[in-house]
Amino acid sequence: MSEGNNSSKTGKVKSLLTEVKTHWKTPAEGKYVPYREYKDIFLGVGSNYTGTKMLEGIGFWAACYLFMYHYQLPYLTFSFIGIINMPLNYIWTLIGWIINDNLGFLPKKTERKFYGLYFSLIVIGLVMIFGKFPFLYNSTNPLIVYLNNMESIGINAASAMKILGTHILWNGWAGSRNIFYRKKLIPKYGRYKYSLYCDVIPKCIMVILVGWLPLYEIPDMVTRVWTANLLFACYNIFGFGNNLETVSKTISPDMQERLLVRTYPVKLSHFIHTIVSIIIPVIVDSLDKEWADINLFRYVYPISFIVPALITMRYAGRIQERIPQPPLEKKVQINFWDGMFGVLRNKYLLINTVVGLIDSLGNGMLAITTIIYLYTFRLAGLPYTIIINLISFAGTPPDLCAPYFLKRFNYKQIMIFYQLTRALGNALMVLAFWFCGDNVHICGIVCIIVMFFMEMTKTIPTTAGHDMNTRIGDYQMYLSGERLESFAGVFGWFTGPITSFVGLIIPLLLLKYGFNSNWDVLYIDSARFKIIAVPLIIDIIGFVLMTIPYFFWDYDNEKQTKVIQVLQRRAEVTQKKAQEEGETVSGGYIG
Amino acid sequence: MKEKKQKVFKGMTAPVDVHLDIPEDEIWTYKIDGLAEPHINKPFTNFTLKKIIFTVLILIAVGLSMYFSVRVVSRVPFEYNEIGDGTYEFTKFNNTGYIGHLDIDYAVEIVYDSENTDPATNFTLKKDESKPISKIPQFCFNCDEKVETIYIGKSVKEIDGKAFFTCRTLKQIIVDEENEYYSDIDGVLYNKDKTEIICYPMNHPQYLREKFGYNDTIWADNENNLEFRARYEADVLTYVLPKTVETIGELAFYDLPLAALYMPEGLKRIETMAITKNWWMTDIYSYEKSEAEEGETGFSAISKLSGVYKSLPDGLEYIGSDAMSYNRVCQYLRIPSSVKYIGHHAFWDCVEKIDGNLSGYKVINISMTEEEFDAIEIGNNWLPQYDNGLLDKKVELVFGAEKVYDEPVTYTEKEDGTFEITAVTNRENKKEFSTDADGKVVTSIARHPFKWDESIETVYIGKDVKELRGEAFVNLRALKEFVVDEKNENFRSVDGVLYTKDMKTLLCCPKAYKNDKEFKVPETVEVISRSAFSDCKFEKILLPEGLKRIESMAFLKAENLKEINSYKGETVYASLPEGLEFIGLDAFNYASGLTYLYIPSSVKEIGAYSFCYCAKIDEEGNKIGVTEVNVALSADAFKKIKAGDHWIPEFRNEKNETATVNYGAERA
Description:
Radius of gyration of chain B: 35 Å
CATH topology of the domain at 237-405 in chain B: Leucine-rich repeat, LRR (right-handed beta-alpha superhelix)
Largest interface: A-B, 95 and 88 residues
Strand content of chain B: 25-35%
Largest sheet of chain A: none
Low-confidence stretches of chain B: none
Radius of gyration of chain A: 26 Å
Number of helices of chain B: 6
Mean pLDDT of chain A: 88
CATH architecture of the domain at 237-405 in chain B: Alpha-Beta Horseshoe
Strand order of the largest sheet of chain B: 9-10-11-13-15-20-22-26
Helix content of chain A: over 70%
Number of domains of chain A: 2
Distance between the termini of chain A: 44 Å
Oligomer: heterodimer
Mean pLDDT of chain B: 89
Distance between the termini of chain B: 122 Å
Number of strands of chain A: 0
CATH class of the domain at 237-405 in chain B: Alpha Beta
Number of strands of chain B: 52
Structural class of chain B: mainly beta
Shape of chain A: globular
Order of helices and strands of chain A: HHHHHHHHHHHHHHHHHHHHHHHH
Low-confidence stretches of chain A: none
Structural class of chain A: mainly alpha
């Protein structure tokens, strides 16, 4: 019996090896992804993910150590700059949606108009940044007086003009690049990873410049603010998103295969980042000022970004997106109203929006992990790395079993369970801070155990969430002929007032409890409790409410299978017609 | 044999076997059961109405979003809350950016002058005397970066210690004398009977710098200038708590550059974060008695303390959480036997490993037995710990530690059994100091052993002393003469001035030298040592032609110095001496009385800032001091010598002008 079992296991291993060897370069019957691509996904996505994670430490926001310790910009400066840029942002966004969801393929006349607009913006932006406007210094105009009274946060009327100019310049530059590169590169590289090809080199240069340009040494805060804003505008022009992982979500029209790729090569690829995240804190610990040391921005971040970025580009070309779609020359043209009304017809997008809206109840709260690791436990160096990785590892075993759970339970069950566990976890942490907040060991251990279990219960819903978002895209493509991923942003406009209002509450509460640009307030037990507990309680309410929309989710497996069949049929028919008409086509995929 | 039951899954990825038969002409319209119908390249019904509704809704949404976003950053400068007894709580202050002085006595509102465009002056603060303020709650001024002075009115009854958290520009908190609950000592906030210190403003050192006449640029430019540092520490960075103080309040001494703090023996409580992040605090002392006058909290009070010993005072009962965390320079800690509570992280991060050596508290001394110590209430992680390979290591505890009184002279035994003098505190204001006073064989004196001193007039250097440097004595401000034992083989004194035995190096001229008008450096001297004449009162200096080196800071702050002349035999000329090769860092900096400067052709190196502030603009706007530098070398030849940054005199005006340099100049 035992011998039989062993030989059967050996046989399975052998047949698996044979299967891998046979289909190393060409996929098996009924499958779309060859096994070599699994290897490429592991290395490519892993590097891409690591690179993006490295970039999380650099950004024009208050939580960035560069700004907190070197630029020393007040907390409110970032919000105020956001407001200066806000009104025009709505216009640029609308134009961007049309370009993005048409993949850069616009009617000639529209394209010329957009280019004209964008080039004008570049000129206007440059004039506003580098021009001199004496009336901004001595004027009784109430707006100018108001702006000149904002010097305490590093802004006055003249610098506000430069900040707005930066915004205009950025949008002109980014917009024209967007049309040009989408049109040139999407046919060759696909809709998700094309930007890596045009952005990776300038991004590497900008990462180096951010650390080395000594703008933080400018003594005048007003000048420091607008120059930093300009520097980071240039930095942000060039993206380096987690594009290859996005590609992997549409790696196959087959749902099982998508999940398999998501669960194994993609998940395992994150270990590359795990290894880096073990090494980096050890290096950081050796720096004089640790996370605030300028050498972190001069050496550690650039090196730990550029190396993964180069590996990413080595494998990017080998990972294919496989969305059943007509050739780009035959794709459905999406005009403004098609886009707007198209996304509003997507019921499942609406459900996701409502969930996101309720989730915004926690907007503005601080990262609980930061508070626990750094301000409760005062972790640094190796212990910090061990705990961070122990907790993040908690989600790995369940994640590897995701295919089983996703077969066994439906999306509704998984997501409701997820929200309830999050509510329970947060409640336990509040209780820990409440009853033993001054006993650092007990409170910290309770929190870490809770976070460990929350991480365990998080990964399967996260995988499910990613998969369902891809399905929503498929469904949108069925409804409108395009995925309309950009136009879907209009839901954010409708929910904006509520999220802004909610986002107003927590920061105001935190300010009242003492949280401002000096995080040392978190060392005071009484302040730390309020700063943590009150937002957590609001979040708990949100998690419970978030279960409600999921009761309306009825997009099952059968519907998805049918949607894919419709998409495949459309691709097949359009491609056939194009061939019959003798047209040269690109970018289509039947599956 | 029992058949294995086939599991039936109904999850998201369970396989589904369906096949749709879609005709070619229906690919854009084919509807799947249970899902909405595709809408591709088709007109919408009621299109105009839908567009209008959509546009209106989106405009409302966008408008509201912008409104709320603006609200996030909109701040009312003054927020008050009526308490109920007719008085008000000053709940939040949001600086407009131009309020540097604030009275907290009555509620105020800002009134802008629409004719004035200068934001710094276009407003007035109008007080409403019907609204007296009685309470200043926690975080009222959190992270303000503009207010320098706060005046607390007589109506204020309650101030939370956290109210002024991280007000980095706050120099003074002045309390109305009629206030029944609070008071201040020179801008430091106390309760009325001075049993509790509530807030030492974060920028109070700046107030003291201004008070004692320190120029900011000195500290920016001369971080390593130990002579200045000692005086600066004495005037600005030393604080003596009055003998009445029983409590150091929460955050009272948060994030300050203080170097030394003296606590009275009546102190009972050090509250949460009371003395945290004092990165440069080298010494904490306690004292048994004080005869200092009320309000005397600076360096002058130290000589009036008696029974001074290191570290925390006997009688202390409570040490709050983070009470003294992140003080990494302080070397000695003793916890007295009276302590009953130590909060978590009380001494966290008070030790660190630098180049393999520990800095900070290497051990914690405790004046109790281990059993007694175990019985007191202690929070987690109270002990400092340092990086020790993979994991951190806690410092050791030494039980049964005795009080360590502050000895007047600290000797360090050397490998050969002789001693080095490493620290001297002239607490008894003696007029003489002798290296032989304690009968030890002293062979060396450390670089800066003397604390700031205004009493010692004579230093006696014994026969065994072999190693010392001139700058060892820079803090002895009343020093009139050196006396060197005749048997000493390494040093000698001539007319009270200290030289090496061979008279080739002038080591130190006493700060209060008897003849303070003119000094002639002997012709044997080749080197004037570091700080040898710094702060001297001479008006004229005569240098020998054999002089080769003027070391760093040799004439620093010689503000009375008007002439530097040189001599060879009977010939005297207006110049630095021919043959001089080296002028050190800051050598003549701040010698602002000089008017003529000639640098001979022999000079090969000029240190940074060597003449930097030898010029200035007077009150009438005229350029005075060294307005021209005459250099014997041609411009091309000068480029070949080594000249540090900012060596040329600077006027420090808006145009950043410097003195004119005349290359190839003839000697006057």
